[in-house]
Every structure is written in structure tokens, then in C-alpha cells.
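new request in #modeling-help
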Amino acid sequence: MVRNMVNNKGFKEHLVKSFTSDVRYDLRKKLMFRDIKVEFGCLSKAEGSCKVSLGDTVVVAGTKLAIEPPYPDRPDEGSFSVNTELLPLSSPEFETGPPGIDAIEIARVTDRCLREGKAVNFKKLLIEKGEKAWTVFIDIASINDDGNLLDASALATLGALLNTRFPKVDKNGLIDYKSKTKKKLPIENLPILVTVYKIGNNLFLDPVKSEEHFIDARLSVGVLEDGTICALQKGGDATITLEELDRMLDIAIKQSKELRKIFKGGLSG
Amino acid sequence: MAYTKRHDGRKFDETREITAKVGVIKNADGSAYFKIGNTEAYAAVYGPRHLYPSFLQNPSTGIIRCYYNMLPFSGMGERVRPGPSRRSKEISLVTEKAFMSVINLDNFPNTVVDVYIELTQTDAGSRCAGICAASMALADAGVPMRDLVVAVSVGRIGNKVLVDLDYEEESYEGLLVADMPIAVLPRTNEFALLQMDGQIDKKMIFDAIKLGRPAIERIYKIQKEALKAKFLNGEKHGK
């Protein structure tokens, strides 16, 4: 039903009106998230996994570990890489084939948030200087797209990293993927990504698909525990003003505190 | 150790040396060259022209497509593998979005404006240089725009905010670094592009943006002068 409204200007006007009166179609207020469900370790073959639902949006992230030579300019560090697949099974709008630009943006923004937020201590992934280090491959797959894949993907990624356990390595240095150890990844920070969306003059969080279709702009903000910002990405066709930027950052910092509670005890436990 | 001095002696709000030229590619409908320090971008605009395959056409407006590309020999380290990468695709996207809010192609339904940005050498700030060049090229092509777009990177090293970081500054070790490319419409002070890598708090974001303002005004002036220079007599053109 929503899909038929995509080019309907009247619908957008109506949407803006509903935002202005701060009552959304699902009765949420502008700055409310949908119900969040997080399932750690939902997959057994992956070294770590996490499934996140934001309302009807469902995303699953899994990690695989590999031993690879470090990058030549960082001989004493391991690394991670993030990839996103927007599966055709999750929306009529997605098609088969190599990742399109939307998938690439989600992967790169998630990557930026984790990397700049220093989520993983790369130095502790080193096995042998210049020769061997752990690489964490993080793959994010959309299961159902009902808006805000950005935030859902970042949450799922962080969950999967926290859930990851190293596999055993045998005498010859080969990985035995069948046996997991109890050793966790060296996670030192929990950067949380919050995307603030703009439609007309309204700023809001966590859109459903029918809202996301009509947004004018968005700003994804990576936030660390102390409120430090570790990633920014503006999207959408419209501009944002300095005053809006100010409000968007405040909203994101505030919401990140809520979302961080999901991983409570994640660093210690 | 506090950060007190930039390695090339620039002031904290000072950009590298800028050269801008308009009309550098004869075949194109509009073109420009923008060099800032050792980062050098060419931009060419083709269109509005017919858009094929026809299912891409929009009967209510023309569309814009941007292509950002680093040439294989343009990087500091190893050869850059030719063809689109995830990075270049993302930069193409944010560049496109930056111009989307500025241009108006309502009078050119079913057409496309293609913007090609090629980096011949890079020393950080390449997406900003590309946007500055593309903005002039679009104006040169006569595409209706409500303002020129000016882009520059601002950021922080340690407790200092600074403008137009080069590679050495962007990869500074030992202190917290943040690199924030911004693109602004100088007339209305709106942001058309905003990204950030690194760690920075909210107050410092606004300090950095404020510090970048004079640089934006200066680049804006350079862009306008370059555009005017094309239409003065040929001798003056370029230099």
C-alpha cells in the first residue's frame, strides 16, 4: 500500500502535518524509537551474530574471523571490514546483483562509526608483527526493510562484535572453525549510531518506510559514551541549517544514551 | 604534547594555496579546474542531455549524476586501482546530494546533467576540491543554481581546530584528530554536505565550522573571479 503513495504529494503534506502535531501514523511522537528487540548469538556457524528488530525492520549481522597479513602501513594491527547486503527478499525495492549505493553507504557509515569510535583495539588482534593478524569480516543482511536500516545495521554490527568468540587455532596456525574458544574480541568502546531525519521543519527519529520515502534530509551521528562524536554523515536531497545541526546533534546524543542500554554490561560481561 | 604549529607553517584558519580556472575542457558544456595545495581536481559537465535508457527519465525534472574518480597515479601510496570503489561511489553519492539541493532542472524534463570529477593528484580534501570544481563547472554550463557550492574540510588536532587539513595532518598520530568535510551555500549558510571522521565533541564541531567561515568566503570569491575571468579577454583567462 505504501508503495503506491510514493509519488503522492498529498501524502507528503499530510505526513508533514502529522509531524507538526507530533502524532505519527503509528501514534509515536517524533523523537520516539519503535520497539527494539536484540538477539545476541542467533546464529551458530558465525563467530558472532546479532539480530536487531526496530518494529518491522529486521537486520542480522554476523562476523567471520580470518588470519591475514596486516596492512603494510599498519604492521602491528589487525582490522575489520564491513559489508552490507540489501537482500531482495527483504523488500520489493531491492534487486539482486552487487551491492548498490544504498548498501555501500550503510556499510561505510557503520564502518566509520566503529572505526573512528575505536570500538575494536586493532593492536590486540595482532598475532605476529607484519605477518599475521586477525581480520574481522562483518556482514550485515537486511531481512525486512521497514525503514531506518542505518541505525538497525549499526546496532546489529555492534551486537555481533560483542558476541564474537575466537575460534581455535591449531599447531600449524590454521583456524579450526568448528571449535570456538571463550575468548572475546578486544572491544573497548561502544559507539552508537543515531540517525536524525528531517521532513519539512520537523526533526524525528526511526522512520518507518512510508515516512522514510518522503524525508528531505538526514544526519547520521556516531556517539561515544562521553558524548564525543565519532562519525557524521549527511544524506538526503535537502540542506540543513546551522541551527538544525545543533538540534540534530543534541537529539542524537540524547538518544544514544537510550540505545547504549541495550549493550549494558557488554564491555565487562 | 600540545599541538601548537602546523607542519607547513599555515595559520589554523588558513587554506593551502588555491588555483581555480573555468573552461579548461573544450568539449564539455561546462568545466573547471580547482587546485588546493597538492590536491588537484578537474570537473566537466555534460548536459542537460538526453537520458538513456529511457526508464531512467523523469518527466517532471532533469536529473543530475556525479562521478568522482581518483586516477591510478593520484594517490600518496600504491597505485589506485582504476574503476569505481566503495569509497568513490560513496563520495559520488554525497557530491550528487550536495548539488541536488542547489540546482533546478524543472525546465529540462527527461534529461540528465552528468558531472565528471577527476582527481589527478590528491593530498587530502579531494572530495571538497572536487565539489568546488564541479560547482564552477555547473555554473559555467549555465545550469540553473541558487548559489555556488563551496566545500572545505575543517577539523581538529588535539585541542586545536583547523581548516583544510592535508594528508599529514589528517593522519596525525598521537593526538585526537577529526576531519570534517563540509559544503556550504554561502548566501544562506546551509549545509549541502556534512561528514566527519574522527573524534570531536559538539562544541568543537561548531568552533571548527566557525573557523572555516572566512575560508569559505575566500573560496567563494575565487570561484566567482574564475567564472568571470573566462568571459573577460583571453589573455587574462586562467592566470
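bot summary: The domain at 8-263 of chain A is CATH 3.30.230.70 (Ribosomal Protein S5; domain 2).
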